[in-house]
Amino acid sequence: MLRRRLNRLCGGDEKRVDSRTIYVGHRPCPDTEAFIPSKFCDNRIVSSKYTVWNFLPKNLFEQFRRIANFYFLIIFLVQVIVDTPTSPVTSGLPLFFVITVTAIKQGYEDCLRHKADNEVNKYLVTVLEDGRSVKKESEKIKVGDVVEVVEDETFPCDLILLQSSREDGTCFVTTASLDGESNHKTHYTVPDTEKDLQALTATIECEQPQPDLYKFVGRMHIYKPEQEPAVRSLGPENLLLKGATLKNTKKIYGVAVYTGMETKMALNYQGKSQKRSAVEKSINAFLLVYLCILISKAVVCTTLKYVWQSKEGQDEPWYNQKTQKEKDTNMYLKMFTDFLSFMVLFNFIIPVSMYVTVEMQKFLGSFFITWDKDFFDPEIQEGALVNTSDLNEELGQVEYVFTDKTGTLTQNNMEFIECCIDGFQYKHRDTWSEVDGFTVTDGPVNKLQQKAGQEKEELFLRALCLCHTVQVKEAGSEEVLTDQVDGIDEMRPQLEEERGFIASSPDEIALVKGAMKYGFTFLGLESKSMKIKNRENNIEEYKLLHVLNFDPVRRRMSVIVQTKSGETLLFCKGADSSIFPRVKPEEVDRIRMHVERNATEGYRTLCVAFKQLSAEEYAVADTGLREARLALQDREEKLIAVYNQVETGMSLIGATAVEDRLQEEAAETMEALQGAGMKVWVLTGDKMETAKSTCYACRLFQRGTELLELTLRTLEDERLKREEKLRELLQEYHRKAVQDAPPVKAGVTRSWSTANQDYGFIIDGATLSIVMNPQHEVDASQYKSLFLQICQNCTAVLCCRMAPLQKAQIVKMVKTSKGSPITLSIGDGANDVSMILEAHVGIGIKGKEGRQAVRNSDYAIPKLKHLKKLLLAHGHLYYVRIAHLVQYFFYKNLCFILPQFLYQFFCGYSQQPLYDAAYLTMYNICFTSMPILAYSLLEQHISIEILLDNATLYREIANNAMLRWRPFLYWTLLGIFQGLLFFFGVRFLFSNPALQDNGQVFGNWSYGTIVFTVLVFTVTLKLALDTRHWTWINHFVIWGSLAFYVFFSFFWGGIIWPFLKQQRLYFVFANMLSSVSAWLVIIILIILSLLPEILLVVLRKPRGPHSRQMAAVTPLSYKHLKERY
Amino acid sequence: MMASSYNAKDEDGHLPGSVGSGGPGAVKSKKPDNTAFKQQRLPAWQPILTAGTVLPAFFMIGLIFIPIGIGLLVTSNNIKEFEIDYTGVDMSSPCFSCSQNYSWNSTSACTCSVPFTLDQPFESNVFMYYGLSNFYQNHRRYVKSRDDSQLNGDKSSLLNPSKECEPYRTSDKKSIAPCGAIANSLFNDTLELFYNHPNGSKITIHLEKTGIAWWTDKHVKFRNPGGNNNNLSSVFRDTSKPVNWHKPVYELDPSDPDNNGFVNEDFIVWMRTAALPTFRKLYRIIQKKKDNMTPTLPPGNYSLEVTYNYPVRSFDGRKRMILSTISWMGGKNPFLGIAYITVGSVCFFLGVVLLIIHHKYGNRNNSADIPN
């Protein structure tokens, strides 16, 4: 006890404040000062935002934080307080509607999150309590609980492994859902923990939770009666992470160290923040413009009002006296209320209904994604899923695609494709193999023909069987069965299929399985001897002497084995670049061609070499290796030196090609995305070689692509320190890719102009962290900008060995770079969650690796290939629809309110509304809302097939093309033009208000009704002109709302409404229609206001690659689409 | 290529469906319905505006609009209109003294006679308007200062008019009927027309008082309280006349009970507020002669006898009297005719220009496109 205290006091543990102490099984330790059950958070995962209690206030607060909602609230309050020309209902009702709908929607979404959380939190786990196993809900696990996990279960929290059912105190774990690595990792129990966990009394001191998955520091004090407490250090190899899955181990016990939101998995999640689409930002910008217009209108009117009133007799003529109250009001207060009244009068220019319509469009529109049967995957019996409908249009704006590799681009399913022995090609799968154009020596080889000589073949296959670190899965009965049926040929293939292998890398398994296909089966490693069964079903035994481990710098591995006959053999396999210099050059030429061809086809190639060691050579190597292993200093360097020494003068026996099967249509999808002008970055936690070959297979890198590599390997330099080398390389690449490259026109990527050199950029996680956090802060921005510029000039970028948070960092860096491009992340595992959350649009693939990605994504699709349609067709259409919707809404309200503004000049700036209150309220709600909603749901200005066939069409809407200031200005000018036309057209007509053939005159409400009728018709017909895709719904809604307007006007003016104070519109509409002049003016104004639009459409020639397709559709003809029932 | 991939997928999609329905459990597949609507494949009409479709439309518009415009212009020009300002701003004007000495309280009416000459005969019915300028009948405070339910004959509103009528709601603690600024400022000049026959006699021209208001206004919207037009003085007993009126509402036209009280047509016409500060309102109708031989108003000298009650000088207003014939399109207004002719010619002109452009430019464009 004293020692511990001393330890603490003397700073033996520097991180004392930053550490936590855990009592295993909550048992007080004999010599601790006191058992202090410290407070840790429980094991509950909370991703929801609201509870039942705080929903209403929190939600309302969040909603009114939106600038638009707040504005409408203010307008509503002004209407309630001040005497305004329009009733508060006109703006209060829509506002209430918007707020309610949004609240219901958000409440529902949060409810789903609660449900998902509950699923995780209520999952039953077994906890050891006082010697008994107790079933507990996962959320009730406390730090210090001893938890039992059985095979294929995921760990409910971060555990320190105490006991494993395996004898050697190890367990296997796959962290696929955490970092994407699907191989099995070995974790170790804490040494010297007793078999009887009940008797174990121990404390664990470890650091406070931190998000790095690969770092863990702690120590365990084990107290035994009448003994000094033993101290064991704990590292990441003892820690089992929440989210990882137990494999190949029946059962383990572990003690919980981090729980709930403090687990490394939870810390790697970022909060799900509200994503805003670029369209919404544009809306807000336009909103500000309109707000300025509105305020300036109100200011102009208020000023003019007081100027006008200053003239004698205008303010208060005898026929229009003010009330006593008005007279008493303070002048400045009156000016202020006048200003507010004008604001209220013109506030319709910023329509509440736009928000309702946009929300409805997004909500309803997203159904088309879920309904799309092209997204339906028969394998998992599911279609696409839409989690957020706010981002539909963002799908049409993507500039950068960040994709995960494992499970997204590839199926993570390695397969042995072919091998090449001594220059002859062996292809297993094909029944006949075509004559290869690249190699003359290649002959059609089907089965193992006597091309390369039996001896060489067998040597090669033995090499494949021996040179690896694969373990055979202990599925006891199978092993026995194999032995029993030994020799029965028909049975063998089935059993071989069932044989399970475990390895740190899936392609090792593929190689062993490949050898199996050719008749050499690896049976397992038993006490340092490897057993293989050869083609004659004889069992050969080799004594494993040394394993020269794989490392990314050497990029090869070797084994030294001893045959029964006493020969010592070295088998080596590795990347071509690391093998070729170490073998005889004349052997290289025969194989190089195969290797290069395979590599560009996207296969992962390995070369196999061998060497016979004489007794002396072996003795030297053996002592060298042993010495190096025992070295205390620079062990790694010494080992590598010995490895290099041993692995020389080998002879090359062949090469293998392993395919990491790509997802269906992965290459086509990537090609389409690049054709659409998107830049594809692959972010993976996987090894560089693997990732690179995938990139080749997906045609992200092409044969001619020059690779700019920025990895630890390229940073190795004797002369320079890493960072200096980094700077040098960055500058060199920058020169190559940015400065020397001919200026590329915006929007045209280089796949267009084939003359340019293509560049691919490769960076790994460690290098990236140097780029992001260099030693000198000053360099950070310089490195970053160099890095970004290089990346932006490369066709494809590959980032390998990325931690989940690094992926998000990259996304964030691109997102915040110049021009703030729209980013999209796609992934399938939990390791992709952070980047999915970070990107503007996050897409989850409903893969096999759990549902984490899907749950955190904005959209989920079953397969990668669906991304093409999602972006090129749905995204494009949604963007066009919503952009048009937004522009149209601003336009239609501008020409709605402009006449009202102009009318102020003719009514003594008295805030007299031009239109009746019913028209003011109904204009946006009923008369003009449905056609645009139908348009924004159904419009297909270019049909889906054409969009899918021509990826380049996507570029036409790139960079928010339809919501830039130019189109906005066009729409605004159109609105102003039409507003002026409506008002002054009718104004000139009313220079003689005797418009009826019985000499009777029209008043101000007739004036307003004529303007309004022209307005409704023009605005609706303008939309009709823009509609390119007339379904029956469009017809119904457009003609229907015009008919409804007429019907409503008759109805509204046909009755003396008892609840109305004034019967302003009584028979106004009917009288208007009885006047020929009114008809004539309505017709001419509608035609005149649509004229410029028609003219523009005609003059604007269809441009771009789709002009021909457009022309192919005969005008004014029904296009009958092929119905596929 | 795309089509083939679609087909392939259809097969994929069908297989599990059929298996699922036949298989045990018959799990309901989550496969989306293959309806045209859900797959966004509704049959659609896809019109594309091209020069080919628009050009004929332009010519059509031109061809239709120009004749209509000419017709409208001719009609408008055929309408006879005579306008005379009788405000009395000038010293020389006959109504000058009346306009100068005006006060609301004067009991004796000031009259003046304005002579004028018609050069052309006015055929058919002639409509007599009074016009006011710089009179803001469309001012918000003014427009809302009325109580339509009172005017519709509602008893409770009669005695307790709407707040909107302030400050013309009550006088002498009695509610005003009709209340409000509009009613209070009822135009109360009396205009009479005389024809000075060449033989020296002065013939009174009969002015029709009815038929000047909208039929629906007169018969539905405006109604005397009690629904009965007789005995109005007792109905309006507890109310007070508008402050600026000389006589109560039930004495607006004592001669005709159907034109008295709230249903008085002069009153109804006034209550329909004008759209612009310069406006005209129908005052009287001069029916055409029965015999059809002589014009309604033959050319010659006339005199307008004005009982000058209505002050407009305080707000710089003007008063006019307008005589006009009416056509099917209403009163004289050349605007529509000119507008139609202009739009028609512009369309025609544009059509021609577009035709030329299309012919020359379009062909060249096509040939340039093909090598691409």
From TrEMBL, chain A:
GO terms for molecular function: ATP binding; ATP hydrolysis activity; ATPase-coupled intramembrane lipid transporter activity; magnesium ion binding. Gene3D superfamilies: Calcium-transporting ATPase, cytoplasmic domain N, Calcium-transporting ATPase, cytoplasmic transduction domain A, HAD superfamily/HAD-like. The keyword DNA damage does not apply. ATP binds at D404, K405, T406, E508, F550, K573, R604, T684, G685, D686, R801, K807, N831, D832. Mg(2+) binds at D404, T406, D828, D832. The active site is at D404 (4-aspartylphosphate intermediate). It comes from the Eukaryota. One of its GO terms (cellular component) is recycling endosome. The keyword Nucleotide-binding applies. Residues 38-91 form the P-type ATPase N-terminal domain. Residues 124-264 form the P-type ATPase A domain. It is a multi-pass membrane protein. Keywords: ATP-binding, Cell membrane, Endoplasmic reticulum, Endosome, Lipid transport, Magnesium, Membrane, Metal-binding, Nucleotide-binding, Phosphoprotein, Translocase, Transmembrane, Transmembrane helix, Transport. One of its GO terms (biological process) is phospholipid translocation. It catalyses: a 1,2-diacyl-sn-glycero-3-phospho-L-serine(out) + ATP + H2O = a 1,2-diacyl-sn-glycero-3-phospho-L-serine(in) + ADP + phosphate + H(+); a 1,2-diacyl-sn-glycero-3-phosphoethanolamine(out) + ATP + H2O = a 1,2-diacyl-sn-glycero-3-phosphoethanolamine(in) + ADP + phosphate + H(+); ATP + H2O + phospholipidSide 1 = ADP + phosphate + phospholipidSide 2. InterPro entries: ATPase_P-typ_cyto_dom_N (IPR023299), ATPase_P-typ_P_site (IPR018303), ATPase_P-typ_TM_dom_sf (IPR023298), ATPase_P-typ_transduc_dom_A_sf (IPR008250), ATPase_P-type_domA (IPR059000), HAD-like_sf (IPR036412), HAD_sf (IPR023214), P-type_ATPase_IV (IPR006539). It is found in: Cell membrane; Early endosome; Endoplasmic reticulum membrane; Membrane. Residues 854-1101 form the P-type ATPase C-terminal domain. Coiled coil: none annotated. Its EC number is 7.6.2.1. The chain crosses the membrane at residues 64-82, 285-308, 339-358, 918-938, 968-990, 1005-1024, 1036-1057, 1077-1099. Belongs to the cation transport ATPase (P-type) (TC 3.A.3) family. Type IV subfamily. This is Phospholipid-transporting ATPase. The lineage of its organism: Eukaryota, Metazoa, Chordata, Craniata, Vertebrata.
UniProtKB/TrEMBL annotation, chain B:
It is found in: Apical cell membrane; Cytoplasmic vesicle, Secretory vesicle membrane; Golgi apparatus; Membrane. One of its GO terms (biological process) is phospholipid translocation. GO terms for cellular component: apical plasma membrane; endoplasmic reticulum; Golgi apparatus; transport vesicle membrane. The chain crosses the membrane at residues 48-74, 335-357. Coiled coil: none annotated. Pfam families: CDC50 (PF03381). It is a multi-pass membrane protein. It comes from the Eukaryota. Keywords: Cell membrane, Cytoplasmic vesicle, Disulfide bond, Glycoprotein, Golgi apparatus, Lipid transport, Membrane, Transmembrane, Transmembrane helix, Transport. Its main location: membrane. Residues 1-32 are annotated as: Disordered. PANTHER family: CELL CYCLE CONTROL PROTEIN 50, CELL CYCLE CONTROL PROTEIN 50A. Belongs to the CDC50/LEM3 family. This is Cell cycle control protein. It comes from Cyprinus carpio carpio.
